[in-house]
Amino acid sequence: MDHSVCYISDPQLIKECCKIPNVSKRAYLVDSLIKAYHLSDHMDVFKVNPSSYEDLIGFHSSAYVDFLKKLNDNSSILDTEDEYGIGYDCPVVKDIWQFITYISGASLTAAKALTTMKYKFSINWCGGWHHALRDSAQGFCYVNDIVLAIEILRTTFGKVLYIDIDVHHGNGVEYAYMATDKVLTLSFHQYEPGFYPTSGSLDDIGIDKGKYFTVNVPFKEGINDDKYITMFQTISNMVYSSYNPKCIVLQCGADSLAGDPIGGFNLTPKALAECVKIIMKWGKPTLFLGGGGYNEANVARCWTYLTAIITGQDDSLSSDIPDNEHFSAYGPDFILDINPGNRKDFNSFCDLNNIFSVIAKNMKIVKELVRKQEQ
């Protein structure tokens, strides 16, 4: 069978992902549930080609990469942890060099599969570490695999549209491209005082040549499926038509789901699924990545469902969790569905209309700038 989807699955990658704080079993759950539903039968499965030093400095500073390499051999150099972010939310992990080269290499492998033009879609649920900065780790993210992958995609496709539906603002990716029009970043996230990473306001629109090519959709606590889907559909389609990208990267952080211990939304996988369907209709090469998500069983449920949609198998997907080695994690109901949350929704229609109006005005400017560039 000629498959149009590439899927990254590698036992060593899964082991490396399980070193990440708060998600020590997640990669195992996700991969085993996808295979229990036989979804891997509808994809070409790729193992990881680990990143090289040269790959990593395609975005990260050589000083930071050198530090990680030295840290791999000698953890006593941690007196510089404040400078490089290794410590509180990004603690030292065993064999950190192998860890970062597999984490980043997985997304590079997925991106390179798209550049062959053999695949429409490429999936790496072990990717999506959107907080890492050029010279420091941040927010459980040691290396920004997303930026590294985008740089690979740019060499073949040119303009890339990056979309982030994690509950947290995709600050690391935004900062990487805030001064350029070569990549437009669009982030849908929770934005309230004290909510990590406290960036991503509606007024953050980029700088210099990148002004208006940064788009933030800041929600308050408690948004539900209907409001989220409506906002995503109207804004993403408007951004897509204005920017006219040749390739899409979607970060599918599942901490936006109800029941996540860190997030504050009321969403079910239906909302994320609708986002995926909207993007698939555009017909562009698309890289799907993971991200946050700290209710591990719910993340596995969600990304399995998204995989079924991407492979066109969602109509035949049973709601009953099939037998697998982690079956007990899905109790007590042992079903694929996730109920919506019951947090109070603080997102008024007035607030949402204001967000839409501001972005619509900015996208008129983007459309005109793009038109002039393409003349």
TrEMBL record:
One of its GO terms (biological process) is heterochromatin formation. Transmembrane segments: none annotated. A divalent metal cation binds at residues 166, 168, 255. The active site is at 131 (proton acceptor). GO terms for cellular component: chromosome; cytoplasm; nucleus. Residues 25-309 form the Histone deacetylase domain. GO terms for molecular function: histone deacetylase activity, hydrolytic mechanism; metal ion binding; protein decrotonylase activity. Its main location: nucleus. It holds the Pfam family Hist_deacetyl. Substrate binds at residues 89, 139, 294. Keywords: Chromatin regulator, Chromosome, Cytoplasm, Hydrolase, Metal-binding, Nucleus, Repressor, Transcription, Transcription regulation. It catalyses: N(6)-acetyl-L-lysyl-[protein] + H2O = L-lysyl-[protein] + acetate; N(6)-(2E)-butenoyl-L-lysyl-[protein] + H2O = (2E)-2-butenoate + L-lysyl-[protein]; N(6)-acetyl-L-lysyl-[histone] + H2O = L-lysyl-[histone] + acetate. Its cofactor is a divalent metal cation. The keyword Cytoplasm applies. Its EC number is 3.5.1.98. Belongs to the histone deacetylase family. HD Type 1 subfamily. This is Histone deacetylase. It comes from Melanaphis sacchari.
